[in-house]
Specification:
370 residues; alpha/beta; Rossmann fold; 11 helices; 18% strand; MeTrfase_7; MeTrfase_capping; metal-binding; magnesium
């Protein structure tokens, strides 16, 4: 699986696009908002900046793409006013892999964003310059001592690659019958995923430390394992359901068994202890806060859960998963099975929601460059 080519959301603004199916991620961004605001306020209080340089890593393309930026602007505005300072100029970089739908961002989202900024903030707020920075955040993106603030939401549970140790030298697949870590995965597979995350997260911290000024801040939100709730044990249970659907399709002769056995997603949800330990071991950042929150799969934009029957809720959640998963799964299994696969997934999701076990653990961490 060539990660840069397939790890992307469904583009455009159609029925199965990420643009139309990203309210779960929006809810996560809003849940992390207090920590984002706190981090930006601390940064501005520490020094008076003429230009604030920001990157959003894993920005994707959709209604959430510029949501963290608007939260940053609101905090910059209120903090600058409280400190009786002129708000800094904002230099913002939107980062994602090259396959991301940057066209939608710059043709549809940013013009509307600038119009809103002018209408609500007017001339009293400094200019906001927005640019794209395609590339993996597991590589260098910026010059040394360049960034003041880095943000990432729902991206760092995606690994730089599928762990190489998931197959023997003779080609025998070790994680058979599923597409990710599962209760059926042998200990060697668990270790391979954990080791890959440790390498990737350590690399991510080291690279950002080179790019950030001393005192720069980061706020990162991603999926988490849960030690006290069995239905969130792995943090990726909804992805395990996709594996179960594919296994059923193998049994029915619709998918080749070898195709399922060789499909492993570059996905790992760490525990809070792992994140804390790796951050302290790498040594470039001091952790300010590390919080966790739980979100139901069927969260809606408002305060209420989806007000419809479980089958409809299952379809909506499955559509959200399809917006994220389809490019990866279609590249491996082909397009022909996709409709059937996500119909099956909607039924399994509906059953989980009926039992009250359809939720994910999330973690948000803020840290300061030493």
């Amino acid at each position: 699986m060539e990660i840069p080519q397939v790890l992307r959301m469904n583009g455009g603004d159609g029925e199965v696009s990420y643009y139309q199916n990203s309210s779960y991620q929006k809810k996560g961004i809003l849940a992390a908002k207090p920590i984002l605001e706190e981090s930006i306020a601390q940064l501005l209080q520490a020094s008076e900046l003429e230009c604030l340089t920001v990157v959003d890593m894993g920005c994707s393309s959709g209604p959430n793409t510029l949501l963290p930026l608007w939260e940053i602007i609101e905090t910059v505005d209120s903090t600058s006013s409280r400190l009786n300072r002129k708000s800094p100029i904002l230099q913002v970089f939107l980062n994602d892999l090259p396959g991301n739908d940057f066209n939608t961002i710059f043709t549809s989202l940013i013009p509307n964003f600038h119009e809103k900024l002018e209408k609500e903030k007017g001339s009293k707020f400094g200019p906001c310059f927005i640019a794209a920075m395609p590339g993996s955040f597991y590589g260098r993106l910026f010059p040394p001592h360049f960034l003041h603030f880095a943000h990432s939401s729902y991206s760092l549970h995606w690994l730089s690659q599928v762990p190489e140790e998931l197959a023997t030298e003779s080609g025998i697949q070790l994680n058979k019958g599923t597409i990710c870590l599962d209760k059926t995965s042998p200990p060697s597979v668990h270790k391979a995923y954990m080791d890959q995350f440790q390498r990737d997260f350590t690399t991510f911290l080291r690279l950002r430390s080179e790019e950030m000024i001393s005192g720069g801040q980061m706020v990162l939100t991603f999926l988490a394992q849960s030690n006290n709730k069995p239905y969130c044990k792995y943090g990726i249970e909804i992805w395990q359901l996709i594996g179960l659907c594919l296994k059923e399709m193998v049994e029915e002769g619709l998918v080749q068994e070898s195709a399922l056995d060789s499909c492993n997603l570059p996905l790992y949800a760490p525990s809070a202890d792992e994140v804390r330990c790796l951050t302290e071991r790498e040594g470039s950042f001091t952790i300010s806060r590390l919080d966790q929150f739980e979100l139901n799969w069927d969260v809606e934009d408002g305060n209420q859960e989806l007000a419809c029957d479980r089958w409809e809720r299952g379809k909506i959640v499955a559509a959200r998963m399809r917006a994220v998963a389809e490019p990866m799964l279609a590249s491996h299994f082909g397009d022909a099975i996709i409709d059937d696969l996500f119909l099956r997934l909607s039924i399994k999701i509906a059953d989980c929601l009926e039992k009250g076990i359809g939720s994910c653990k999330n973690q948000v961490i803020s840290m300061i460059k030493k």
